Amino acid sequence: MTPDLLAQILPLQETTPALLISTVIAAYLIGCIPFAVVVSRAFGLADPRSFGSGNPGATNVLRTGNKLAAFLTLFGDAAKGAIAIGVAAAMGLPADLLGWIGLIAFFGHVFPVTLGFKGGKGVSTSAGVLLALYWPLGLATLGTWLFMAFTLRYSSLSAITAALLAPVYAVFMGLPTPVIVPITLMASILLIKHAGNLRRLLAGQETKIGSKKKG
Question: What CA–CA distance (Å, rounded) separates 126 from 103?
């Protein structure tokens, strides 16, 4: 759903500083919910920051062998991005700012105050943001990730490829600038967070999906 379409169906309020600040804070705090840690504790698993890549995300939770825990982490992290945008829309924020709210939620996941600003890499949360902003864009980006993941079985390479193509998809789909710019910034942060993975990929040292972390 694009900002233009949202503007036609949502009751908009005047964008006061108080509304904008409260919405930004809400989006950030939603993004800060550490589902990988919460789900792991609920399932009696080790803290995902203590093994494998040390990343509090679904891929690392999957290294425990508990697929349900990994799925719930994936779902929760994706839901954060979508919920943040939904909350912003419900609070009456103008539709052309919703992409930026999604970016704030993504930022909360990557740099959460709840984990000392050391969060996940943002793949799932960015997917939730894209699906909430414009579902065809979200599906195209998710499809890219799935294709790469099932063919090459490298989660990091799948994320890097999807991040590179998301802004390209947005441009070709004719989305407005208020959507394209925050998507591009989100993709850029995601790529920076995967810099170490890229180095390991080039060195042939990256682990595949479902494999244990190499020593």
Answer: 8
